[in-house]
Amino acid sequence: MQEFHNELRTGADIQLPSGFSFAGYRGGIKKDKLDTAVIVSQEPSNCAAVFTRNKVRAHCVVRNEKLVDRGETVKGIIVNSGNANACTGEEGEGNNERFAAAAAQHIGCKSEQILTASTGVIGVQLPIAEMEHAAGSIETGSSGEHFLAAVDAIMTTDTRRKCVSCRFIAGGSSFTITGMAKGSGMIHPNMGTMLGFIVTDAPISAPSLQSSLKLVVDETFNMISVDGDTSTNDMVLLLCPPGDRGRFTCEQERMDFLSSFHSALYDICRYLAVEIARDGEGATKLLRCRVEGASSLQNARTLAKGVIGSSLVKCAFFGEDANWGRIIAAMGYSGADFNQKAVSISFRNFDGTRAITLMKRGTPVVFSEEEAKKILSQQEIEIFIGLEEGSASATAWGCDLTYDYVKINGDYRT
């Protein structure tokens, strides 16, 4: 499995790219918590984006997609938590526009240069008057404190911050890429994470930026599942200074630069994706499903995510029950093509110190329940699935399904 290529920093050690400032503040939605974040680009930025494939789409998703497709440069992103502003009709659409306009007025740019994002309860109107008033006193800064306030402001049922940065060298220059995300429940992305915002001071053309983000998202955010629900508001936005033209003496130099950036972007997105899975609502275990020997990449990904998304598999791991029959059953209805007689299944610790084989080449293996329990009692567990049909492999991440998940979501709105 591909490991991180770059040194990652989190929390107080976070590194921030030049040219961006941040803020987190109370915008009028939550009574006693930060609920609005702003990311401001000093210069108009190129933007790459991926959005939810849910057919019910929040107003922020619809508006942002149009602006990104038009190739608009971006001066800022404003995000609210606690209210999804989805399924709120014409009033909600207008409120989303007013939200963008309030940020644009403060930043000093066109409203078309502001992207919006919302997360929270569906079907409730934004308290837009209070939000407009609060936006008039935004104080952004480029310190770690300002950045972490923005991270705090986008959280809903998250129990911890999800943010990370790294520096990478390309073409003899050093660049920084930094990301934040929120997500804990309603996690089964078909595009990216619930909300993810990434900024870098590496200058990259818009087409190259979009291509890299799409490839990375398919390997990371699209390979996690907490509860099988794809949100109406999912998006990942990536900002950078415009253009890489004129920086390179040859095409190979440009390709090396883009390769270094792509590697760093993968590390950032993989870290954030796994942290979302780890922080699943009520979760006690982080699960990793690794599929090797599949006939195609698509089959490998479908199998891995099918297993990690199974409610029965999740429940078995919560109960520390080595019920591998649920795993092969999930493989069978995943939609992937595979030979049942070629399937091998093992449970492993992440560090590889313990492993137990449950099925080998389609045949059950007698195993020690006691040894299985030692592995299943750990907080990080790998489900390894071996096939003998090709060289394709994929990894998906998820978590167990607990009583607390039901408690959290049973009264989420109230």
Helix-strand layout with pairing:
Elements: E1 8-9, E2 20-25, E3 36-51, H1 59-69, E4 74-83, H2 89-107, E5 114-121, H3 128-135, H4 144-153, E6 163-170, E7 173-182, E8 195-200, H5 206-219, E9 224-225, E10 235-240, H6 251-278, E11 286-294, H7 297-308, H8 311-318, H9 325-333, E12 344-349, E13 355-360, E14 363-364, H10 369-376, E15 380-386, E16 392-399, H11 403-410
Parallel strand pairs: 4-5, 8-10, 9-16, 11-15
Antiparallel strand pairs: 1-6, 2-3, 3-4, 3-10, 6-7, 7-8, 11-16, 12-13, 12-15, 13-14
Helix pairs in contact: 2-3, 5-6, 7-9
What do you see in this structure?
The protein is α+β, with helices and mostly antiparallel strands and 414 residues long. It is 33% helix and 27% strand. The chain is built from 11 helices and 16 strands. The chain has helices at 59-69, 89-107, 128-135, 144-153, 206-219, 251-278, 297-308, 311-318, 325-333, 369-376, 403-410; strands at residues 8-9, 20-25, 36-51, 74-83, 114-121, 163-170, 173-182, 195-200, 224-225, 235-240, 286-294, 344-349, 355-360, 363-364, 380-386, 392-399. The strands form 2 sheets. Strands 1, 2, 3, 4, 5, 6, 7, 8 and 10 form a 9-stranded mixed beta sheet that branches. A 7-stranded mixed beta sheet has the order 9-16-11-15-12-13-14. Helix 7 packs across helix 9 (325-333).
